[in-house]
Write a structure and sequence with these properties.
It is a single chain. It contains 25 helices and 15 strands. It has helices at 8-25, 48-52, 66-90, 95-112, 129-139, 157-163, 172-181, 200-208, 240-254, 269-279, 298-311, 316-323, 334-349, 357-371, 377-401, 408-423, 430-434, 437-457, 465-473, 493-496, 526-532, 539-552, 574-586, 598-605, 634-639, and strands spanning 2-4, 43-45, 119-122, 144-147, 232-239, 262-265, 287-288, 292-293, 406-407, 459-460, 477-478, 488-491, 503-506, 557-565, 568-569. Helix 5 links the parallel strand 3 (119-122) and strand 4 (144-147).
Amino acid sequence: PIVFGTDDATLATVKGAIEAVVAMSGHRMAETDPELGANLMLFFFRDWDELLAVPDLDRLVEGEFSAHWEKTLEFLEILRHHWPLLLESEGEVDPATRRNALLNAQTEAWRANPPDQPVIAAGSTGSIPATARMLAVIAGLPRGRVVLPGLDQALDARGWAAARHDETHPQYGLAGLLATIGIDRDDIRPWAGCATAPGARETLMAEMMRPAETTDAWRQLDGLPPQGLDGLTRIDCATSAVEAGVIAARMRECLEQPDRTAALVTPDRTLARRVAQELGRWGIDIDDSAGLPLATTPPASFIRLLGETAALDLAPVSLLALLKHPLSAAGMDRADFRRLIRSLEVAVLRGPRPAPGIAGLRAALVGRLSEARDGEKGRLGRAGEALDRLDAILTPFHDLMTRPDAPLAELIDGQLQVAEALAADGSSSGDSLLWQGEEGEMLSRFFSDLRDAADYIGDLSPREYPAFLNALLVGQAVRPAYGKHPRLFIWGPLEARLQHADLMILGSLNEGGWPLEAQTDPWMSRPMRQKFGLPLPERRIGMSAHDFTQVFAARQVLLTRAEKVDGQPMVPSRWLSRLDVILEKLSLGARLQESRPWARWHEALGRASGRPAPMPAPRPPVEARPRRLSVTRIEASRKDVGA
């Protein structure tokens, strides 16, 4: 497969979906071409022009790589010849091609007829070639202005020249943009109201991010402005759980001062969710710019469980997970339905697995009735009532899932009808429960769009439908429109470029977390990528470094990391290691450490004061205690307490 996308986030989402579908279907590349091995072959391009930029594509790789590249070219022929013909027949173009055409057209229009009105381009690093060409034209307009985000004017000339060729450096993109525009860094004027010379923090940041080939300059480093460490602190935590608790406590402290704001900036979604949960201790509902994954919300998990249960022929584990979901009621009062399901669980769903479907559950119940004592028949009767209700609701969709294939539209309609019926309780319709709130509205729009596209997809194996649905839910997020705390925020690095808070917290500063690891391309070597016009894997590290420096330059900054994540020792981020080297050289490391024991306070926060509560020791009255216990029923009695 060859995939195009407008940005890295889109490509990551598409890649996850493709891998999930392939893993679900069980297909392997080896089934179609044994010489390619068992790996899935994926090519990701951010731009159509990237594929066609090399004129001699057939002679791009020579020597020992030729045989492997010939196999790759067979796939590329689809895009080089057949795909353009298909687009032409449909009268359409790729989105990236259309975007570049619009940018190029506007660029040529401004070059031919420069406008008299002001034209301002702000916040772009020109990572897309068409955008860089437009910025070059805007910079030359009579009233044109290009506002560069985070240009480093404190780095010396030797370091700046090296940054132009170091893709991991935060200034790599801006250095390339200035070369495209044809302007020297010294000719750029600071924004009105900003300092005319780099500040103390910018000077420290320039040294910390110095290109690797010029780090010998640290040997002659005599000193830095001491104000560069003002407002900058660091906390190293034992585990990621402690890190989340410390960040939450530090953010909560900000609320003690009127109008003070705080923001956590991190690419680590696990840390972001943990911090949000920790803040719930104080009743704080924080705004997370990434939102909540739609697949994990109650209505989406309910519908996913329904599909998996039907695909597994009502297997006990998946069936119980579905029936014990908070949305399940089957037209009854929810408390009564829970008691009914507990009776069904004890009677049928424990022990040997029943035969598939409702018929298998009924057969298991009949077997239990034939062996039951008089005192157990009442509970078994309630289990039969539960099966009657489930038979009426689940059987139509289960029968549909047992077919060899079915139209996707029919699968969607059948699943949603059963979901609404199962979610209905005695006082309201399932429609109002399943689709309520922002989560329900987002899920409703998702299925509406999927239903519109179902006719184009056609038939699908019902057994693969749950995995197909899970793959499509990847990347879908729910973002509340309002109701979150107005002074506390969780931002990703992209959102942090456009906003700021009084306290900026940079979390999860470990290698592999921030920055992410540079993934090795199994199909294209570094020389091949360079000849092909693709950026090296380290380019993403440079973009992350640029995001990091934008936040690092804030007035109040807290740096945090966990020494262990999920029990695994972690290596500090390369940027923290560089900062440690500089501060150690200047004997300033102690100034960076937080003076207050936030980790110890977090640990004490969960402890109750006073004497510990006694262990539970139920003592029923003597007349209620059993007179006789069967040895063979002891284990079952321990499991069935309260059933």
